[in-house]
Write a structure and sequence with these properties.
Length: about 220
């Protein structure tokens, strides 16, 4: 059964047919020599990008997405009406405190990412910036793929009546993406599965029973 027949069956059953992706040039030469920084371990390369959408009243809001390219875990999604360079620093500072400083932070040349304050702050804490070539979003393929999953699996199917609702639902989706959603590139396992400890094994050792108070000797009679 070829691809075209599968697509016809999907359309007939009312299923969404994935859009065909244009072919891109290689990101490394055929001889195997790498020309792009590749993540080799957790916290080696993070990437981040903005995604825009609108609430039901037509007002625009933005999302700042941060992922670890090695583990594919979504580290944060900051949702706000406006996001500036100071917000980028605020999000990264929280993540650096929780997870440590990554080796590199990859992004495009958006004004919030190339701002002098952002570059100086990232350098000051010991990380390095890794900007992609202008006009080549496929060089930032990990975050672009994540943005596509976010829009396809959540944003295209939800209508948010308020910014607060968007924050709650998007954060819930982020947790599901990290802990439950299977990833084909990870052997159909989630990037950060939660570990549940059975209640019986989580109980501490039984506390020793308090000893009965000693019986006081009878006071001598005064007679």
């Amino acid at each position: 059964m070829n691809d075209k027949r599968v697509e016809r069956i999907w359309r007939r059953e009312g299923l969404k047919v994935p859009a065909k992706q244009p072919k891109r040039g290689r990101l490394w030469p055929s001889d195997g020599s790498c020309i792009r920084l590749r993540a080799e371990s957790p916290n080696h390369v993070w990437s981040y990008d903005f995604v825009e959408d609108r609430t039901h009243d037509g007002r625009k809001y933005r999302m700042l997405n941060v992922i670890d390219e090695f583990t594919h875990e979504c580290l944060a999604i900051r949702v706000s009406r406006k996001l500036k360079a100071t917000d980028v620093i605020d999000v990264l500072s929280d993540l650096f405190i929780l997870r440590g400083v990554p080796g590199h932070v990859r992004s495009d040349h958006g004004p919030e990412f190339i701002a002098k304050a952002v570059q100086e702050w990232i350098t000051a804490v010991g990380a390095k910036t890794a900007y992609i070539a202008p006009g080549n979003p496929w060089e930032n393929g990990f975050i672009e793929s994540f943005n596509a999953r976010l829009r396809d699996e959540l944003l295209d199917g939800e209508i948010f009546s308020s910014l607060k609702e968007a924050k709650v639902v998007i954060e819930s989706w982020r947790r599901h993406y990290n802990t439950l959603r299977p990833h084909g590139s990870l052997g159909y396992k989630p990037p950060a599965p939660e570990v549940f400890v059975p209640a019986m094994s989580a109980r501490a050792a039984p506390h020793p029973q308090p000893t009965a108070p000693s019986v006081l000797a009878e006071r001598p009679s005064l007679h």
